[in-house]
Amino acid sequence: MKFITIKDLIAQLKNDLIGKDSYRGVTLTYSWLANQFGHFSLGFIPTILIYKVLESKTKLSHPELWAAFGVWGAWILFELFNFLWPLLFKKESKRKALGAGKYTFQPAWINVTFDTLTDLVYFGIGAFAASLTCKPNDGMVIGLIVLILLVTYPFYYWYTTKMFLQNADYPFQLRLSQWNQQIKEENKAAILNFLSHNEPGKHMLLFGSRGSGKTMLSVGIATESSIKNNSCSYVTAVKLLCLFYENEDNPPITKPGAWSWRNSSLLVIDDINPGGHVEGDILSAKQFYNILNNLACGELNKKAIKEKSIIWVMGNEDPTRHAEERWETLLENIGIEKSNITTVNLDVV
Questions:
Q1: What residues have CB less than 8 Å from 214, skipping those under 6 apart?
Q2: Phi, psi of 311 (to 5 degrees)
Q3: Torsion angle of alpha carbons 278, 284, 288, 289, nearest 10°?
């Protein structure tokens, strides 16, 4: 398993803070920094404005304190409403992706709560900093120092978490709770069981026709693993076939804290077969195994696949050809126990 070190974090900060985003593009870490600066500003600017009004229009003592705590209190109430609304008053969504109006997979509410509390601390830092700008106060200095100390761990956690997400190279951003298509309860239980296991070597064969949501589901599952700070990777089957011939266990990577497919803890292999109206396997299990087990890197490839967890995103299959069993056989030939192989078919609802 690959971990992101302090050195990696500093290197990513350097990349985010130095240079123009119009030239290099915007990373998830850069977006998170901009978001927190926005929270700081939404605490800072209103506090300055309200202080000016209170100072000139009222006779309140310590208007800088009234302004700071008033603004911070207002944001606390807003975030409380923003957090509780989907819990208590969630209405049916008209969005296609959430057409059922209910969560298929429950959001990670503890993670959402932690994110909300982090935002509130940044609001408070902005308000307290503005109060000190308006008029120095020893109590506010202490309060600001306390908030900065409180935000140290959340900053490290969220910034490195964004690094785990962006280094996975997902094609889009999606939490598992945002996937809300029809699925059998036993398949849902199998997915949750797959996600709950921390030990490597678990494999999921995810079958489904075009439009069944199999790619979205695989990215959602892997995203939850990335948020737990596991090193995940997304790759299409065609690209992986090329990577099977790389004879370096750790090829040169320029991104701070990044990893290769071989040393990731969870791998998503997408587009193994197209599904839809395309009949038959474009890439059969036998072809896949022959390329995987090439003379140059076969043993290294088999070892990597055996030791990591993988989501195999397949197409729809003809049950009369027993295609699912053939892919299970491939995994067993590599040395994976049958008990570590889970099959989920999204076409069966």
A1: 206, 207, 208, 313, 314, 346
A2: -105, 115
A3: 170
Kindly write down the DSSP assignment for every residue of 254-296, as one continuous string.
Answer: -STT---STT-SEEEEE-SS--TT--S-SS-HHHHHHHHT-TT
Query: pLDDT tens, 30-48?
Result: 999 999 999 999 999 999 9
Section 233-238 average pLDDT = 94
In 115-217 the beta strands, taken as DSSP E runs, fall at 203-207
In three-state secondary structure terms, 216 is helix
pLDDT at 106 over 60: yes
For the chain, domain boundaries: 6-166, 171-345
Residue 20 CA, chain-centre distance (Å), reads 25
CA atoms within 13 A on the CB side of 272: 26
Residue 268, CA atoms < 13 Å, CB-side half-sphere = 25
CATH number of 171-345: 3.40.50.300
First to last CA, the chain: 35
